[in-house]
Amino acid sequence: MIVAKNIRHSYGDLDVLKGINLEIKKGESQDSELGDPVDIENPKTLKSTTGLWPDWLPYGHAAFMLILLLALLLGYGLPYEKPEQPQRDYRANYESVEEEKKAVKEYDEKVEAYEKEKKAWDEGGEESRRGWIAVGRNLAKFSTVLWLIFSFIVYGLMPLLRLIPKHFGKDLSITLLPVLMLGVLYSLSRLVVEWIPDSGWPLPSPLELNDQSLWKVMGQFIVHLTHPIADMVITLKEFAVDKWFVPLLFVAATLVIGWRQSIPGKVDESSRKKS
């Protein structure tokens, strides 16, 4: 199941791993090439391991997907159909008077049921149905924004905050981190403003509800997973490229930091020459 070949790693001049080869078959585990296989079927032989991916995280994403799908089913799959008035076919040829009376009686029962349904629909049923649809649509947007903010911060921003000082140095990170934080906050703020309207949860227009179906639910599922990410990418591009003062600020701050670092070196060199 797992094959690793020629694994090497070092800390500076210290070689820690020198060409490690590892092969783990299904149902066993080993610590190194010379280690004894461990039976994973026996819980006593297992070691508690914690990786970068928490155990609860996949379930959290699955819970979000389930909430999003249920909200979309409520918002885009709930039927919005007004009661239809029954129609009577006066051109039908009945074989007997009893058959005609039976047809008239069935038609009168349908008309009576229609009048009850129409009365309930006009007195609040229609508005209640649109209200539930609005709840589903806005809950889908709200949950998508919260999930994207959480994922972006945990899997994007936090690793960058740890990697930038490590790879670019403490001085350069002083310039990079504020610009990065400002860009992230700018894109997240734009996302919240565009996807969560300040007018509350407006009821959709009846004209928008004529195509409620499962196909629309699946389409909106893809839209809710892709469009917020695309909006954030476009916003970050506008922040970094179209807003020319941001790169200019970065270049200026970098020059200032480099200039400050070069001054002590020049002073020390000049003092040595004089001595």
How is this structure best described in words?
- With 275 residues, the chain is mainly alpha-helical.
- The chain folds into two domains: 2-45, no CATH class; 68-243, no CATH class.
- It is 65% helix and 9% strand.
- Strands 1-2 form a two-stranded antiparallel sheet. A two-stranded antiparallel sheet has the order 3-4.
- A hairpin with an 8-residue loop joins strand 3 (28-29) and strand 4.
What structural class do helix, strand and pairing data support?
mainly alpha
Q: Biggest sheet, in brief?
A: 2 strands, antiparallel
Low-confidence stretches: 43-50
Instruction: Report, as a whole number of angstroms, the end-to-end distance.
Output: 67 Å
Query: Judging from the principal axes of the Cα atoms, what is the shape?
Result: elongated
Strand content: 5-15%
- According to DSSP, the number of beta strands is 4
Bin the helical content.
Answer: 55-70%
Give the averaged pLDDT, no decimals.
75
Count of the separate structural domains: 2
SSE order, as H and E? Answer: EEEEHHHHH
Oligomer state of the chains in this structure: single chain
Calculate Rg over CA atoms. Answer: 33 Å
Count of DSSP helices? 5
Physical arrangement of strands within the biggest beta sheet: 1-2
